[in-house]
Structure prediction request, 134 residues.
Amino acid sequence: CLNYFIHVFSCLNYFIHVFSCLNYFIHVFSCLNYFIHVFSCLNYFIHVFSCLNYFIHVFSCLNYFIHVFSCLNYFIHILSCLNYFIHVFSCLNYFIHILSCLNYFIHIFSCLNYFIITEGLLIFFVYIIIYITV
Prediction:
């Protein structure tokens, strides 16, 4: 009977050893599960940073377009300044036209003055001829 009990306890000891080994493997898998969870969290953060990188890229592209529109604004400003100078030269052209018209009238009055002087000399010579002959 003792031999039987010793055998039973020996078997129980074997099962206890087997369950102890199983407990060890369960602990190892639990640790692995913990690392898997940690890597899953890291994967989540990597995804978040990837999304942030995407938004940074989008804002970088927006910054490029803002720079392009800023350059366009600069060229529009230059064209506006050119338009102002064209307006100034247009006004100068108008004043040059007015001075040209005034020059034309001065030329007409100069010609009239010439005819008045010529006519005055003719009248003077006619008067002298009449005075001498009479």
Residues 56 and 62 are 10 Å apart (CA to CA). The chain has a mean pLDDT of 92. The chain has one helix and no strands. The radius of gyration is 57 Å.
